[in-house]
Write a structure and sequence with these properties.
single chain, alpha+beta, 6-stranded mixed β-sheet, 4-stranded antiparallel β-sheet, 18 strands, globular
């Protein structure tokens, strides 16, 4: 059979999508600036403000919006639940749903998922411009959350607008999820899945230009050490708890090195020199500059490979801490809060990853890259617990994620908007809309 006409039609559609995404660049910048200007850090009033922003945006796109306050305590029995030290037990969730108008539409369904919470800014005076005032310079948009991952959130929404403006209606149901708490637990996405939302696939436009094929597990723990107070006239009479925390963490470094040995690496990460990272993120101790500190608490992030359960990772960490504590005569306790996130692998041969790769190749005119990531994302909830194929693909591995002067390439956001529109057209199928 002669497929040349079909190939030309596909190429024409891609060209139209690319052109329309480029035409919408100013709106993309405006939408991204507006959402970056909302300082949606953990447990602040701005969390609700940003979700209201998303609910209004999705309504503008013609989606039916479900917005509710999820009781996170109701998720505690779920294997994907992560505990958190916060006293806030309610998190606002937003899901916009597109349903094909034609009853005969039989396209595959899809979830777009994105988080709108952001990490703290660090010292604001180190930023070139205020972190919650979006700034465009040299083709990049700066601001906390610009890359991780508000750019991806805007791209997934604008992808639907691209198709709408072209008079094309997706032929499969699409859920667009806007969630909180991704940066510390992932419980926002878990609440959406617990509410019953499902689909044939999920794409999360996190800031990774390569299509994600695997991700590490991540857990947070709080290490508390008891010392013995004394006056600095005789520091030998006391036991410095702050120094002891550093000693305990150095012990954990040995476990980190062991997990990075070639023989210990998971096959998906075998090509990486140092995929496993432990981080001493917060330390708090002491009451007086002239007193040997009697207590110190440290918050630590631990990465671990897919295939290792959270319980197994915790057991390995605790065994290491006990050995160090016994050798150095340090008394300690461990409490877990925040991420208790297992790692996962994506099926590299799945229709989802193949279709997303083809969409990228068509729009970007270059082959898609596939790679594992050394962090966690909400993709695990879909892959491990909901049997929904999921992956991450977004504007780029942005500059200074979680750092000072975080930014994202505007050209990359426009390109990913087009790629996601192309992917929807291919995955769900499209037909002329009734209004076109």
């Amino acid at each position: 059979p002669d497929f040349s006409h079909r190939v030309k039609m596909a190429a024409d559609l891609t060209a139209r999508i690319r052109t329309e995404a480029a035409r919408l660049e100013d709106e993309i910048i405006k939408r991204l600036s507006d959402i970056v200007n909302i300082g949606s850090m953990l447990d602040t009033p701005e969390e609700k403000v940003v979700q209201d922003f998303m609910a209004d945006f999705l309504r503008e796109l013609g989606l039916k919006v479900d917005q509710w306050d999820a009781d996170i305590t109701q998720l505690e029995a779920h294997p994907g639940f992560s505990p958190h030290a916060s006293t806030v037990t309610s998190k606002n969730c937003v899901v916009g749903t597109y349903t094909p108008a034609a009853a005969s539409a039989a396209g595959r369904s899809l979830i777009f998922n994105g988080h709108v919470d952001v990490v703290p800014t660090g010292p604001p005076h180190l930023w070139t411009t205020p972190p919650f005032t979006a700034s465009v310079r040299d083709g990049r948009l700066y601001g906390r959350g610009s890359g991780d991952m508000k750019a991806g959130v805007i791209a997934m929404c604008m992808a639907l607008k691209v198709l709408h403006n072209l008079g094309l209606a997706p032929q499969g149901r699409i859920h667009v999820m806007s969630v909180l708490d991704e940066e510390c637990t992932g419980n926002g996405t878990l609440a959406c899945l617990a509410r019953g939302y499902t689909a044939d696939a999920c794409v999360i436009p996190e800031p990774f230009s390569a299509i994600t094929t695997a991700q590490l597990g991540v857990m947070w723990l709080e290490l508390s050490v008891c010392g013995r107070p004394a006056h600095v006239l005789d520091t030998s009479a006391g036991f410095n708890a702050i120094e002891a925390v550093y000693t305990m963490f150095e012990g954990l470094r040995a476990l980190e090195r062991a997990w990075n040995e070639d023989a210990a690496k998971h096959p998906a990460f075998a090509h990486m020199k140092h995929p496993i990272n432990f981080n001493l993120g917060i330390i708090s101790g002491g009451q007086w500059a002239s007193t040997v500190p009697a207590a110190c608490t440290a918050s630590i992030r631990v990465g671990f490979y897919p295939g290792m359960s959270v319980a197994e990772a915790r057991a390995a960490v605790e065994e290491n801490l006990r050995a160090t504590g016994a050798a150095r005569n340090v008394s300690f306790t461990v409490r877990y809060h925040g991420f208790a996130a297992a790692g996962c692998e994506m099926d590299a041969s799945s229709p989802l990853l193949a279709a997303l790769g083809r969409a990228h190749a068509a729009v970007a005119e270059s082959a898609a890259e596939y790679a594992p990531i050394t962090c966690t994302t909400d993709a695990r909830h879909f892959t491990l617990y909901s049997r929904i194929p999921a992956t991450c693909y977004g504007p780029e591995l942005t500059h200074n994620i979680h750092g000072i002067d975080e930014s994202v390439s505007i050209a990359a956001v426009v390109r990913v908007t087009a790629v996601l529109a192309q992917f929807v057209a291919d995955w769900c199928g499209v037909a002329p809309s009734s209004s076109s």
